[in-house]
Amino acid sequence: MSNSFDELQKENKEIKRRLEEESRDLHKAKKRISELEGKIDSIVEEKLEKNIVIMNVLQQEQEKTEEMVSSIIGHIGVSIATLDFKAKRISQAANSPILLELNDRNTRNLILKKRKEAGILKMENCGYRGKKIVYFNEDLTRPNKIYSHKQGRLRLNRDISLHG
């Protein structure tokens, strides 16, 4: 009986040792997952900062979104040949915004600057049907919307305190 008790104690110690080892491995894995999630979030954030949303672009028959976006961008004075981008409709609706994914922030800033300099831009001026004004906006996903909203409130509060 004493022999079987000793064997059970040895087995118990071995199980505890393995459990502690597995627990350490699990802790290391959770820590690594947390690090990777942080890296992924920063990469996604960086990628979103390079996007532009183009609104009020009516869907055309046999639409080739990238060609249409190239035409619109060319119309505001940005060289299309040098751009590397992806363009896609955000949803299937006829007047759905177009998400323009660019590779760098400088290109995004150039497009937004040229758009502002171009003044009012209508679809019919670009050779497509529709009379609506085309708007270019930064990709205001949730984190950017919150930041933008806070910045706007800070500016508003500063203006109120300065003027009144």
Number of helices: 4
Structural class of the secondary structure composition? alpha+beta
Give the total of beta strands. Answer: 4
CATH architecture of the largest domain: 2-Layer Sandwich
How is the CATH topology of the largest domain named? Alpha-Beta Plaits
Alpha-carbon Rg, integer:
28 Å
Strand content: 5-15%
The end-to-end span amounts to 91 Å
Side-by-side strand order of the widest sheet: 2-3-1-4
**SSE succession:** HEHEEHEH
Question: Mind explaining what this structure looks like?
Answer:
By secondary structure, the protein is of the alpha+beta class. It has 2 domains: 1-48; 50-138, L1 transposable element, RRM domain (Alpha-Beta Plaits). Helices cover 57% and strands 12% of the residues. The protein is rod-shaped, with a radius of gyration of 28 Å. 10% of the residues are buried.
Briefly characterize the structure.
Residues 1-27 are annotated as: Disordered. Helix content is 57%, strand content 12%. It has four helices and four strands, in the order αβαββαβα.
